[in-house]
Amino acid sequence: MVPRFLVPVVLLLLSACAGGDYRPVSDAAVKIGAPYRVRGVSYAPAADPSYDMLGMASWYGSESGRRTANGERFRPKGVSAAHTTLPLPSYVEVTALDTGRRIIVRVNDRGPFAGKGRILDLSRGAAEALGMRGAGVVPVRVRVVSPDERDRARLRRGKPARELPPVDAATRANLRAQLRASGL
């Protein structure tokens, strides 16, 4: 039995073991952030509810346990992503242009900073849900969405949102043609 005067100390130590320096996963404090530079490129975070872009997505996962840009613990098996300028957190629908698979992802980190048309870095869990983990880098459409609270809660827990029907072949062909016309 712990003496009564030591209970606060024990609780403090236990909370530190549970990752007390990480922000709890929440949608409550949306962070836009100040402009910043990485590798000589400037980024200006901003709210953009009409964000709808074509580009390339990659995935990352070796950063397990590190802090994301909004202070949460990175969970590689979770369904999350990194974006250079969207508010943290944001929710986006990601469509793989090769397969038509679509998923909803919670953006809670900054990146990618690799260039070459990359507009999103997916966690390993998101890459697996999208069916792109083996490919490494794939052409995608990324658009901001506002999922219902049930999907938001699942994504905050690192679980996938409801399954979305795939995009038809004609629409994918049109989107891939637009992406090629942009030089990617």
Approximate shape: globular
Strand order of the largest sheet: 3-7-4-6-5-8
Q: Approximately what portion of the residues adopt beta-strand conformation? A: 25-35%
Q: For the report, how would you describe the main beta sheet?
A: 6 strands, mixed, barrel
The Rg value, from CA coordinates, equals 18 Å
Oligomer: single chain
Tell me the helix content. Answer: 10-25%
Mean pLDDT: 86
How far is the first residue's CA from the last residue's CA?
65 Å
Query: In terms of structural class, how would the helical and strand content be classed?
Result: alpha+beta
Q: Report the count of strand segments.
A: 8
- Pick out the low-confidence regions: 1-19
Number of helices: 4
What series of H and E elements makes up the topology?
Answer: HEEEEEEEHEHH
Strand and helix map with partners:
Layout lengths: L6 H11 L18 E3 L2 E3 L8 E9 L19 E3 L7 E7 L5 E8 L8 E6 H7 L6 E8 L4 H8 L12 H13 L3
Parallel strand pairs: 3-7, 4-6
Antiparallel strand pairs: 1-2, 3-8, 4-7, 5-6, 5-8
